[in-house]
Amino acid sequence: MRPNSQAAKHRSSHDTEREFGGTLGAVCIPIFLPLTVLFLICVSRSPEASVLQWPPPLPSADQLWEPLAPVLLLGWIGLHALLYLTPVGKVSEGLVLRDGTRLKYPINGFHGLCISGVLLMLLLGLGAPLGYLFELLLPLAVCAIAVSFLLSVYLYIRSFWAPSHALALGGNTGNPLYDFFIGRELNPRIGNFDLKYFCELRPGLIGWVVINLGMLMKEVELRGSPSLAMILINSFQLLYVADALWNEEAVLTTMDIVHDGFGFMLVFGDLAWVPFTYGLQAAFLVVHPQALSSLGAAAIIALNGIGYYIFRKSNSQKNQFRRDPSHPSVARLETIATATGKRLLVSGWWGLVRHPNYLGDLLMALAWSLPCGFSHLLPYFYVIYFTVLLIHREARDERQCRAKYGLAWDTYCRRVPYRIFPYIY
């Protein structure tokens, strides 16, 4: 095969739209986000745990490297690659691609989570020091960042052998820095092994709850038993990850899979950002234990439960409507016709706000931070970051839907004026 030299000629108007700050963002984000990951881990382990401390707590060279770290990371990725290829669970088809075909995806991520859990319990039973993950956080993060860069370089190079219809609309601009960051190829595969789909929900997401468990075991080593705050954070985030994997098929209709190319943005997010920043609360509690009353715990559990209910119900309604609008659970919902032939929901959860799933997500994010108390800003990094992320993602959705649905989208916005927060935004 030879690189597709004609790829740059096959562009739509979408290709000229630069997101995330265009070239400047494509240069700065791959520099500053990895440094942010390392900075946040260092802060979570420092006595002050202050994100405003200057100079910031800098690690020594020997704290950044541990020979065991790459072995664990690559072994973990290899384990989940094998579990991905295991012929269990069903095989589902994705949405129709530009060439009229549908790709097939194994729906077995929840099996991978369960098998990982069994293996971890066996290791704990054999006396494995899982709490040592606390000491390995920085070296593991460094290795995950390195793997993210290496995989991104591979994906960028191989994309020049991909046919033009296999390229992401927004990732084929001709600007190498921007295309490397945003991702040129939409669904890069090695045989039937889909690299983007694998990274989206497997090693990083499941790795997140493993790191959390390691933080819990470190707390047991230090204090004899896990705190109520640590138990709540582990439980809430395990529920979130288990839900994502139980409903794995739903990811096939998300923006990440359908629209975005697979470049540094998603690779780094999946393999480094998610496992090492989403669980900062657990790492924080190892060094900064927090007392939590029964009443406070009950209120936080209720908040997480409400958020989860909104998140799950709204996502299930959306996914059911996308796959089968005639299903009894969605057939009676009010809709608006569009010029594309598709219809927009204007009742049920999606008549409340335009993104009720984001609302549920943010309520859960707040519940994950509250067990850490109010004395430090660091545990609230996730909910602050996630609010910014979802508002940005909502703006991306808005642009794409307005371009796709035209006047029908304007009608929908008049019917459903609030974007995420009812009567607020």
UniProtKB/TrEMBL annotation:
Listed transmembrane segments: 20-47, 67-86, 107-130, 136-157, 225-242, 262-280, 292-311, 365-391
Pathway: Steroid biosynthesis; cholesterol biosynthesis
PROSITE patterns registered for this protein in UniProt: STEROL_REDUCT_1, STEROL_REDUCT_2
Main location per the UniProt record: membrane
EC numbers on record: 1.3.1.70
Keywords from the UniProt entry: Cholesterol biosynthesis, Cholesterol metabolism, Endoplasmic reticulum, Lipid biosynthesis, Lipid metabolism, Membrane, Oxidoreductase, Steroid biosynthesis, Steroid metabolism, Sterol biosynthesis, Sterol metabolism, Transmembrane, Transmembrane helix
InterPro entries for this protein: ERG24_DHCR-like, Sterol_reductase_CS
Subcellular location, record wording: Endomembrane system; Endoplasmic reticulum membrane; Microsome membrane
Catalytic activity of the protein: 5alpha-cholest-8,14-dien-3beta-ol + NADPH + H(+) = 5alpha-cholest-8-en-3beta-ol + NADP(+); 4,4-dimethyl-5alpha-cholesta-8,24-dien-3beta-ol + NADP(+) = 4,4-dimethyl-5alpha-cholesta-8,14,24-trien-3beta-ol + NADPH + H(+); 4,4-dimethyl-8,14-cholestadien-3beta-ol + NADPH + H(+) = 4,4-dimethyl-5alpha-cholest-8-en-3beta-ol + NADP(+)
GO CC, any one term: endoplasmic reticulum membrane
Family the entry assigns: Belongs to the ERG4/ERG24 family.
GO molecular function ontology, one term from the record: Delta14-sterol reductase activity
Presence of keyword Cytoplasm: no
Protein name: Delta(14)-sterol reductase TM7SF2
Topology class, membrane: Multi-pass membrane protein
Function: Catalyzes the reduction of the C14-unsaturated bond of lanosterol, as part of the metabolic pathway leading to cholesterol biosynthesis.
Secretion signal, residue range per the UniProt entry: none
One GO term of the biological process aspect: cholesterol biosynthetic process
Pfam families registered for this protein in UniProt: ERG4_ERG24
